[in-house]
Amino acid sequence: MPRPALRRPARSLRSVMGSTMLVAAAVALLSGCSPTGAEPTPSASAPASGSPAASDPAVTPEPTESVDPPTPFAIACDALATPDQLYAFNPNFGAAPDYAPTAATIKTVATDAAGTACGYLNQTSGDLIEVAVATPSATALTAYANEAAASSTAVPTYGTPPAVTGFFEHSGSNGQVQVFTGAYWVVLDSVEFFEPGDAQRLVEAVLANLPAS
User: Fold this and answer.
1) What is the rounded distance in angstroms from the CA atom of residue 81 to the CA atom of residue 6?
2) 20 to 30 Å CA-CA from 133: which of 7, 118, 126, 159?
3) Is residue 54 pLDDT above 60, yes or no?
């Protein structure tokens, strides 16, 4: 004779509803602990706030050019051209009292290049010969020589290049000699110089009186 099937007692409606309410409360509690929305993350390509902008590698600062100062050169005027040498050049020439440079290049030699300028006066005509010598920096000496070469005529009789490089220019009423030898820049300027040969003897005398450089 078969056994009658056992019937499990049904869970009470109150128990089921209680469990359902516990699950719903747990879900609500968990949802309250999670953030309402994720904050946006900064773009990887955007620079950080407050950080300085990167310098442009293509832009480089211009270098500052340094200028070497000249070495001051001093010599007595009666040693630059002695009385005997002046007499051999022209017996009428002697020292010029209260001399002050007048020719522009002579002024440059005496001031910008820190050299010595001397004046020799023709006691009869009143004509003036100006002679100036300086020892500029090597860079400046090259620049002055290039300027002379561009504006004047080379004169090989003043000396043998490259030991001695001479130039002559006649402008207006004056002739001007520029000679570059060793560290020296030598300039002679006068109405007495109509052509290069007019200053030849005096140029030789001045160059012979310069201390070895």
Assistant:
1) 148
2) 126
3) no
